[in-house]
Structure formats: structure tokens, C-alpha cells
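Summary for the funding panel

The consortium committed to producing paired sequence-structure records for every protein in the target list. Below we show the first two records in order, beginning with the earlier of the two.
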Amino acid sequence: MFALAQQGVKSIEQQRVTNSIDNAIKKSRKLVLRCYNMIASQQEVSGVQVASYLMNYDDHYTTHTFRNLFLISIENYLQAELTKARLQ
């Protein structure tokens, strides 16, 4: 994977160098996109993956439904209760 990213860097370096900040930002974006495209083009995709993508199926399966757990509010509640218990 590193070799693919290195190919992207070399191709960007071969382009003409300019001093514009906007051009530097564009080059950075091009570099990231080119590296991503090189890595993605080397990825093997199975027939099942292609069919699932074309049929708009989910990319994962789960037997359970999960809920969010907000630990900070629980921690604050426990801290308040411990403080009350200590003061009694």
C-alpha cells in the first residue's frame, strides 16, 4: 500500500511547481485523491460485494439492535449521588 501512495507522490512531484497557496491546496487534494484512487483500484471485489452494492443492500448484518449509552451523564449522576451520601 505504501508503494501505491509513493507512486501518487511521485506523479504530483513531476508536475510544474508554483508558489500559489491556492495551487498548493489543490495539489494537496489531488495528491490525496490520487493516492486513494491508486489504493482503491488495487482492491479486489467479490461478486457478492458487487451484487450487494448494485442492489443497495446493507454492507453489514447484525442480529441485535444497539442503543447509545451516554456515559458522561451516568458518571455525573453517580458522582452527585456519592457526594450526597458522603454529606449525610
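The next record, for a separate protein in the list, is shown here:
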Amino acid sequence: MSDLYEKVESGDYEKAARILEIEQSRQTEAGNHLLSEFLGVARHICLACHQSHADVDWHRRAQVMAGSREEEMKSQLQVLLEVMSANNLNHHPPDDRFGNSSDLHGNSDSGRHGMLKLIQSMISNLHHFGSVHQFGTIGPNNSSYSVDKYRQILKPHSNEMEWSSQVTEQNADLKVYCLGRFRVFAHDKLICNWPSLKGKSIFKYLIEHNKTAVSKEILMDRFWPDTDPDSARRNLHQAIYNIRQAFHQHQLKIRPIIFENDHYGINPELKIWLDFEEFEWRLNRGRQMESVNQMALAISEYRTAEELYQGDFLEEDPYEEWPVRKREQLRVDYINIADLLSSWHQEMKDYNPAIVYCRKILEKDDCFEAAHRRLMQCHQANGQPGLAVRQYHLCVEKLKNELEVSPSPETRSLYETITHASLGLGKALKITM
């Protein structure tokens, strides 16, 4: 258990959880059910700690954003109190600081319409504040886009992912591939003229957060952490301008990035297709089909999702911290899909595809014991016990080097079964000879 304590002390909760999982399996095999329960609880705590690490950065950004919102609301409140304290609105129109003399439809009128514009603006801002960090009203003169429209388009983390039924890889204005090599196509033309690596990274960040708006303070802190605020602000404005110019050169009529209330975001009017969201949508569809026992349809969706996964999320940015949480989530989802597909092919006695999927799993997690066992079983079923034995020894090596543990009783038992069967076959062959 000393190794477990070391993992916990160093904050490596994921490996600690793996060690606990293996130990729990051993205790279950030995009939120590109470200890097994304790180990299971400890494993869940480790996983929760691992998730908390990923949440820390999100909460830090949220704190910065909350402070910015409070200051803006405070200034709005002060303006409103000043107007109310005048106490003579029925006799004197407000001054020009609350708007010009045009009403909401562009007609000439008294300053009363300026007050209406002020009230409308404040209501819009309240919608914005209430939604934490979604856009309220955005567009030319803040009049082209309604709050309800943005609520509909910018639904955070919708389980149904309604966009997928509206935007496809074929009809999208913009196609973005984040799984594997990062690529962006505007009307089927590859964007190559990125103004800078920093600008490209900012666009990637906004793509990951495409259903929410991101405050400029977060972007400044994220991409220019050691720069004074004025310089960081200028750098951000220049980077956003350069990104827009790059897309403009590819005849993209809709501005890809919009700005309102000191927040940037991907324009929801843009028909955009994202491979990682399509992957998630296919995964959810597969689960829905599986839940109603439509396995053929479920397998079809899982296969499509597996094919979409051409590599880890933004794998070209291994040293950036901000994509890690999404990358790990998608990697786990992919491993689960490949595990399910390999299991299904094994049950169908279609061993070669099962072997392919198991190898893909081990490329992502070479300590995934279930994949090692399934490979051993498939090689044995294919009449290749030597490959099964070799796979066991590879499993032993990986577990020792990565986690400093031995294979589970289940894996060792399978190995013994295969070797005994091989010895029996060898003796039978000698007798017949």
C-alpha cells in the first residue's frame, strides 16, 4: 500500500484509483467483501479528487468573470439611481448620456425614447448577468438578435444536441476538426493563413467553449498571463482582428467571432460543424438505441463515433493546460466505445475486428486489463495460444512499469487456463505422432 500512499500524496489520483480498482478486484475474488467495499469507496474518492483538480481552473476563471459582472452591474445600478434621484422624469427628459433622440425604430422623438433605450439595455444586461456567461443580445446596434434566439442557439450542454440535426458536415459554413490534427475548412477550403500561433490558439479556445461566451479578462489571463493589462488587451484585440481577416479572405460572409459586454464567442448564426460534438452526439445516440435494445442501430452509431475519433482532442497542444479536461473526457468516451465494440465482435465470434479495437484501446491506455484479457481470449479462439501468452507477458510488463502492480486474479486465471490448454494440446500431438 506504500505505492498507493505515494500516489495520493503526489496528487496522482487517477493512478491511485487504478491501484484501488485492482486491489478491490483481488479482495472480491478472495471473498473479503467488506474490505472490497471500503476499497470501492476509496476509489470513488480518488476519482472525485481527480475531477476536482480539473475543476480548479474552471472555478478560477469563473471568479474572475464574477468580479467583472459585479462591477458592470454596479455601474448600471449607479446610473439608474442617478436617474431616479432626479425625481422629475415626467417634466424633463433625461440628458443625452442615456441615448440620442431617435426612438427604437429610428424615428425622431424626444429624450423619452432615450430612456426606453436605457431600460431596454439594462434588461438585456440583466439577462446576460443571469445566465452567468452567455450572450444576451448581440449584433449591429444590439437589435438584430433577441435574447430568446440566443437562448435557443446557445443552450449549454444540451443532451439532445439539437444543432446536429440542423448542421451536417455537408452543409456547414465552417467545419472544424479537433480530434487528431487540427483543421478548419471554410466552405470546404482549408484555412492555412493563420496570423499567428497565439491567434490560432485563441480560436481553438473559443471553439471548445462555443456554446458560451468568454470574457476578455479570461482570454487575457489565459494567453498573456505575464503581460500588463493594457498590453494584453491590445494583443487580444489584434489577435481577434487577425483571425477575422483570415476568415474574410476565404469569403466567409458571417463574422466567426462576435463581441458583446466584454465577452467574445463563436457567432451562433454561423453554421458550424465540430467533429468532437458529432462524436458526442453519436455516442449519446448509441446509448439511447442500446437502452431500448436496438443493438444493431447502437453499434452503427458507435462505429461512426469511433471513426470520427482520429486522435486525441487538440493533440497538437500537449503542453496547454486548458484542453486537458475535454481531452481526457473524450479519450475515456472513446475507450468505452472501443471496449463495447470489441466485446460485441467477440460475442459474435468475429475475433479479428475485436482484436483491432482492443489494440486501439491499448494505444490510449496500455494498462487497460480488460483489453489485454480480450486479446488473449481472441488469440486463443483464433488458434494462436502463443500470441495469447505473449499478450499476457506484455500486460504484466505494462502494469509493472506504469502502476507497479501485478495483473488481477482474473487475468492470471485466464493465463493459466490458456497455458494448461496449450500443454494439453502439445501432449496430445506428441501421442498422435
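Regarding this second record: The chain has four domains: 2-63, 88-152, 167-270, 321-432. The longest strand covers residues 174-177.
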